[in-house]
């Protein structure tokens, strides 16, 4: 596919959560329709999409019918089963491409690939059993963190190890899942860069945002980040390096630790990212439209930041703050229309905007 | 209804064109769902709505089923048949209310009502036949413009009369529709004010925009308008006067002529308005979200303008300029996803943004 998708084309989105929802809204601005594929009933993205398929990722015929009805397929999360991707790709191009998924689906593959690119990561080791964990802990010291190689998000699938004698219990907690041990990095801040690469190879990056977490879940992202000018340049160059190495098309999020020794890559996400939500109220073209433009083969848009923004997630019953936040003129609300409120569930976010 | 609609509620929208589409997108940001009622197949708003009813405004059962499934009904155009509104209102509140529709559906009623409020309009006269037209032309002079009292938009249902001997032909062109004769007003500019009134009576107005037309269709709206400071205040006060007199809830557009003798009201539209599209890229809360906030009983949002914007409509095959406009970093694109391109049809618009 080389020609840009014309208005009226249909984008298939794997996953119907809030990221799919905001991608669908961005696509509508460009005159593009969206078709959501999502196993769960009544997905948030379905409320703003032209069509929704409710089926599992193991439902071959549903995947194929979906792929036949759309012009390009993208995704809002990286843990899509390989077999599902194979089914789709036989009928319809997937963007960003498979290499980005292969690399980012597995923490060990990802860190190995990043260091191969000459980028710094936290120390890490493959863990297959107690002896390999014990050896790695001896090497790396404590504290360290044992993580499943796959399917982790929002702090799930992670166990902190503070003393070597906790090794066996930690391994047990992961229930035999393939694992990786990561050393702790003393950092002064965590930042992320949301960057995009067009089908023509053009690269653009939004200003880095500074993140805070609680209970393993992103709480806030603030732009501008507290960073020396050099840090901004370095962060953007790292993101561009990754995008080019993957021959990537779309938006990608890179989480970085700021340390006295420079920037260390924490992880990458081959998709729009929670820490890029501030762009909705800080840029003419936000991360969602930038992603749609890229995968549709359109030129990238203008992501220059025109305001200072602090994005705050509304998690669980924080959605009840809506009435108060709606009254605050500095707050731009973005709610996800989720049917049920659950602890730890991202229900919406608010962008607090300050004009410079 | 006094309590604000909680997230998860459903807004019914009469009309599935681009205004309904952009209202639905704005509603999604607030966690609200939309249900579109539209006689035409595949309406642009249906692509971003949770549900669509395809039925005519004379289909009582469909109107009633629609009204039962939504929490509030609003509309994207003012020419909704009264009987349809009656059917709906028996089951579900309509916002903005009926008085705004009654006044704005009929040019004669509207102008009479506006002058009753102490506002200036162009000279006008009710026309029922040739003698009344001849008499009015004698009174008002030429040029003058004969318009149908109802169902006119984008220059349709209007005939310009340059000489008294054109009266009979002009009347014939309107095919016996009830009519009004309007005198020409020598104006230096046409501006419009998009203003909102909340369920609590709070009023807010966006900065006035300056409009240009071609062939009776809005071409561009520019903010800031070329107006003395006094003109801005006057325009906003006129809009507030109208909103309060109608006990209005929602967004309303007021078109005004700028004349050496002050501002003259051209017409009002009880809905979001094409000349307010610039707010999408010039304000944190745009006219669409402002309308949704108002009709949902939420507090009005912050419509302070933070950029200079020129909105340009893409009409007919101007949609083919998309590729070029997508490359221009100053341009924010808003396409409507309409299936067919027709001459005179609004296919999208572009907001050219200049940071002050």
Explain how this protein is built:
The structure is a homodimer of 356-residue chains. With 356 residues, chain A is of the alpha+beta class. Chain A folds into three domains: 10-94, 3-Layer(aba) Sandwich (Rossmann fold), CATH 3.40.50.20; 123-183, Dna Ligase, domain 1; 189-354, 2-Layer Sandwich (D-amino Acid Aminotransferase, Chain A, domain 1), CATH 3.30.470. Chain A has eleven helices and 17 strands. Chain A has helices at residues 18-29, 60-69, 82-89, 98-104, 107-116, 130-140, 167-173, 229-245, 279-282, 287-295, 322-326; strands at 10-14, 33-38, 51-54, 72-75, 124-127, 144-148, 158-161, 179-183, 189-197, 203-205, 209-214, 217-223, 250-259, 262-269, 308-315, 331-335, 346-354. In chain A, strands 9, 10, 11, 12, 13, 14, 15, 16 and 17 form a nine-stranded antiparallel beta sheet that branches. In chain A, strands 3-2-1-4 form a four-stranded parallel beta sheet, sandwiched between helices. In chain A, a hairpin with a 5-residue loop joins strand 9 and strand 10. In chain A, helix 1 (18-29) crosses helix 10 and helix 2 crosses helix 3. The radius of gyration of chain A is 20 Å and the shape is globular. The model of chain A has no long low-confidence stretch (mean pLDDT 95). Chains A and B meet through helix 1, helix 11 and strand 16 of A and helix 1, helix 11 and strand 16 of B. Chains A, B: Keywords: ATP-binding, Ligase, Nucleotide-binding, Purine biosynthesis. Chains A, B: Its EC number is 6.3.4.18. Chains A, B: Belongs to the PurK/PurT family.
């Amino acid at each position: 596919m080389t020609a840009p998708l014309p208005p009226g084309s249909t984008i298939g989105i794997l996953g119907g959560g809030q990221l799919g929802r905001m991608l669908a809204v961005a696509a509508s601005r460009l005159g593009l329709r969206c078709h959501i594929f999502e196993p769960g009933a009544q997905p948030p993205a379905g409320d703003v999409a032209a069509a929704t398929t409710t089926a599992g990722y193991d439902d071959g015929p549903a995947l194929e019918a979906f792929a036949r009805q759309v012009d390009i397929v993208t995704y809002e999360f990286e843990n899509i089963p390989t077999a599902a991707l194979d089914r789709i790709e036989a009928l319809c191009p997937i963007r960003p491409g498979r290499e980005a998924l292969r690399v980012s689906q597995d923490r060990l593959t990802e860190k190995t690939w990043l260091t191969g690119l000459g980028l710094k990561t936290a120390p890490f080791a493959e863990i297959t059993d107690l002896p390999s964990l014990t050896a790695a802990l001896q090497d790396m010291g404590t504290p360290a963190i044992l993580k499943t190689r796959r399917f982790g998000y929002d702090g799930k699938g992670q166990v902190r190890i503070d003393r070597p004698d906790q090794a066996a219990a930690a391994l047990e907690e992961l229930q035999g899942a393939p694992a990786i041990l990561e050393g702790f990095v003393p950092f002064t801040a965590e930042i992320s860069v949301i960057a995009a690469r067009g089908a023509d190879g053009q690269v653009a990056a939004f200003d880095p945002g500074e993140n805070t977490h609680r209970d393993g879940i992103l709480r806030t992202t603030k732009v501008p980040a507290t960073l020396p000018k050099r840090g901004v340049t370095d962060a953007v160059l790292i993101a561009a390096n990754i995008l080019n190495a993957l021959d990537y098309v779309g938006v990608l999020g890179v989480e970085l630790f700021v340390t006295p020794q420079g920037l260390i890559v924490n992880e990458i996400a081959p998709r729009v990212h929670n820490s890029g939500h501030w762009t909705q109220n800080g840029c003419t073209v936000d991360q969602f439209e930038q992603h749609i433009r890229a995968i549709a083969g359109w030129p990238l848009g203008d992501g220059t930041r025109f305001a200072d923004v602090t994005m705050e997630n509304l998690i669980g019953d924080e959605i009840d703050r809506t009435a108060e936040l709606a009254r605050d003129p500095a707050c731009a609300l973005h709610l996800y229309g989720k049917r049920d409120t659950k602890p730890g569930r991202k229900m919406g976010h608010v962008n607090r905007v300050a004009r410079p």
